[in-house]
Design brief:
It is built from 8 helices and 5 strands, in the order H-H-H-H-E-E-E-E-H-H-E-H-H. With 181 residues, the protein is of the alpha+beta class.
């Protein structure tokens, strides 16, 4: 068998910021700096379809994001009480129910046992979860306005809330070169 010829290396494309002229880049940056998640709800028909689809792909996306944050911005030792506990995130308007747990190797999908209830259930709409992730909304504000619900072990719920509150998001933005707000 003959060896396959090596392909020439293609040049790396420039970063998007390099492609934009200075004034346009500045205006886009200003708009992103002041961006707010608009009020929206996932259409009911789409949610009905999503509720019947396998929940594994969105759960894997969630656990991947959590694992990327683990030990970087989410301290593993603080989250130790979550180890082995069944956590569930319900995205109310999208018809998604994401079951996961924290193990020695990080966050992973959890297969719910028949008849077993999760230790902690966190429920909100897609818009409110995005606003939480972007730090536009405070968990306490959403909780007291009944837009964020926690059911089950209240100690675990407080641990999750306090861990998110303790993250120094401005330091993380600076570390990533995104600047503070």
């Amino acid at each position: 068998m003959s060896a396959l010829p090596s392909l020439p290396r293609l040049p790396r494309p420039p970063l998007p910021a390099v492609l934009l002229p200075g004034g346009l880049r500045r205006r886009i940056g200003e708009r992103l700096e002041n961006f707010r998640v608009p009020d929206f709800t996932v259409p009911a028909r789409l949610a009905k379809v999503a509720a019947h689809l396998p929940q594994q792909p969105p759960t894997l996306a969630l656990t991947l994001a959590l694992n990327l944050a683990l030990d970087r911005i989410l301290p593993r030792d603080t989250l130790a009480p979550l180890t082995g506990r069944h956590l569930q995130m319900r995205v109310l308007d999208a018809g998604l129910t994401l079951d996961f747990t924290l193990g020695d190797g990080g966050f992973r999908r959890a297969a719910p046992a028949a008849g077993a209830r999760p230790d902690l259930v966190i429920s909100a709409t897609t818009r409110d979860f995005i606003a939480l992730a972007l730090r536009e909304e405070d968990p306490d504000t959403l909780f007291f306005s009944r837009r964020l619900r926690m059911e089950g072990d209240t100690e675990l719920g407080l641990l999750v809330k306090n861990t998110l509150d303790a993250v120094d998001w401005d330091a993380l933005k600076a570390k990533l070169g995104l600047g503070g707000r």
